[in-house]
Amino acid sequence: MLARRTFVAASAALLAAGAPSRALAFVGTETSGVPHTPQGQARTTLDAVAVIAATHLEVRTAWRPPSVFPEIAPVAYYPGRGADPRYPDEVVVWLNPDHPELISPRVSRLTDEIPLFTELLLASVDVRASGLPSLGLESLDPVKRRILATTHASDAAVIAKYSPYPPVDDAEFARRAFAFAVLRQMTPGIGGVAPIEVPASVMPREEPLAAYVGRYADARAPRGRGVIHIVGTSVPESPGGSEAWVRAFVLATADRQPADSAVKRAYEAARAQDEASSGDHYAARRAFAAPYVTQVAALFGR
Fold it and tell me: What DSSP line would sit under 211-242, residue for residue?
């Protein structure tokens, strides 16, 4: 696990000096679960960090389209144990692909991960990892539980400066813009790209597992969508299949960029080079996609 500051140093500073005092809003102090004293607040913040870190190791995070998120939690959401149809036997926290800062937090914004931390704390009630301190969440009704979880999440992000992901500066965040677009395109339910299963015999020789074959390349795809041909639904989990799967989405997303964008121009140049080649007809596109495949892979949670 990674942190914006060395965790031990942050712990020592918090316990020695106490956390900055702040208003305890929303709920009464007798039911808030937040201690009155700075020292007590500091200890509770460290407890919250421990719970968040442990729960993060136990849950699965999954990107889901914005339409499935409730108004109360539009950025990240814990739907409850067994509520994710794809992973019915796991505890899953949903992430909105419009907010990649959840797992690519910016150094300049300590609040980026508060929505994720809130949902991890809510999920902790169902995970119940052994040996962890209690934050009192399990004894509250859903409304007060969410309020208290948000308070603890804010303290973990802003006061303790904790993060399970390597934070990036604003320039790096902007540099990942296309990788974020690919991640969004890969999210089920977004649209724009249509993966279609085909026999292995029709796959390109150079891309036998998954290949972007262009727009209007398959009559079964909705009009205007880019088409990815795959040889089986297990391709993304197979050896070598994950890289081919991401690469296909990189190419499909690049093809959908504005004509005057640098990514689109680079993609078209690579495609033209491949079409003129007498050998490997995907070599230039693989080289174009390679750095983005690495970036996109790094954006996926557990």
Answer: EEEEET--TTSPTT-EEEEES-TTGGGSTTHH
pTM of this structure: 0.82
The closest alpha carbon to 252, from 190, 167, 174, 160, belongs to 190
- 63 vs 128: CA distance, rounded Å: 24
The predicted-structure confidence for 67-76, as pLDDT tens digits, reads as follows: 999 999 999 9
In the chain, where are the structural domains located?
7-165, 176-299
Determine phi and psi for 88, rounding to 5 degrees: -65, -20
Burial class (CB in 10 A: 0-12, 13-18, 19+), 29: exposed
CA atoms of 227 and 14, how far apart (whole Å): 53
Q: For residues 42 and 289, give the distance between their C-alpha atoms in angstroms, rounded to a whole number.
A: 46
Q: Looking at the predicted structure, is the pLDDT value of residue 154 above 80?
A: yes
Would the CA dihedral through 170, 172, 178, 180 be positive or negative? negative
Higher pLDDT, 32 or 73: 73
Report how far residue 207's alpha carbon sits from residue 211's, in angstroms, rounded to the nearest whole number: 6
pLDDT for the residue numbered 13 = 41
Residue 109: how many other CB atoms lie within 10 Å: 14
- The residue among 92, 250, 259 whose CA lies nearest residue 185 is 250
Residue 35: CA atoms inside 13 Å, Cβ hemisphere, count?
Answer: 17
**What is the distance between the alpha carbons of residues 85 and 251, in angstroms, rounded to a whole number?**
29
C-alpha to C-alpha distance for 73 and 184, rounded to whole angstroms: 18
